[in-house]
Design a protein that fits this description.
Strand order of the largest sheet: 1-2-3-4
Structural class: mainly beta
Number of strands: 16
Distance between the termini: 9 Å
Helix content: 10-25%
Largest sheet: 4 strands, antiparallel
Strand content: 35-45%
């Protein structure tokens, strides 16, 4: 078996860091974790979605609506229009000034930075599973395996493609060149182009 030289170099670098304690020291400097007890702050239910706006505030979606954390305190019911909605996805718009909110049964919402409602769109396909904001497009994946796009000037969703029956989307990402990558609950990684999906096959060494 022939090993990739880049893999060998990376392995040696990691071993060197571990042997000198450099990796541990770097990790301690670079990453700090703290625990935010959202239940103690009054947030009900499991966290189903998390988003971050341009100001750095964190937004938490549950089955009971949307809450907002500004770094100091948690504000419950941060979006009155979503008080009784089950939040499934949160995604900043292309400018980072507003937030797209996907729900289980109530469609798609665009909120202003203060939590007020800017737009509301009905979405076919049931529960919204994932959102991704691109350069000029918002991508929306729904429970039925459909993926739709909404342009910055659009007022309705345009179908972009459908996955095979029984395949559920777990995450979406638009790359710098505008390609949409799709991750599924069955472990697939797909690329969407011209209405068709191409699967990436991950090869283990």
């Amino acid at each position: 078996m022939v090993l990739d030289p880049r893999l060998i170099k990376a392995s040696l670098a990691i071993c060197a860091l571990l042997s000198t304690g450099g990796f541990t020291a770097y990790a301690e400097r670079a990453i700090r974790f703290s625990h935010l007890d959202v239940q103690q702050a009054g947030v009900e239910g499991s966290i189903q979605a998390i988003g971050r706006d341009k100001r750095g505030d964190l937004w938490f979606g549950t089955a009971h609506g949307l809450s907002r954390f500004d770094g100091y305190q948690m504000r419950l019911g941060a979006a009155p229009a979503l008080t009784n909605s089950s939040i499934t996805a949160i995604c900043p718009d292309s400018d980072g000034l507003r937030l797209w909110i996907g729900t289980a049964n109530d469609g798609l919402f665009l909120l202003n930075s203060d939590g007020s409602l800017h737009r509301h769109l009905e979405v076919d396909g049931g529960r919204i599973e994932a959102l991704a904001s691109g350069q000029e497009t918002l991508w929306v994946a729904t429970l039925d395996g459909g993926i739709s796009r909404l342009t910055a000037q659009g007022n309705h969703m345009e179908p972009a493609g459908y996955l095979s029956e029984g395949t559920s989307v777990s995450t979406l990402l638009e790359t710098l060149d505008g390609t949409l990558l799709v991750g599924t609950l069955t472990g697939q990684l797909l690329r969407l182009g011209q209405g068709k999906f191409t699967q990436f096959y991950l090869v283990r060494a």
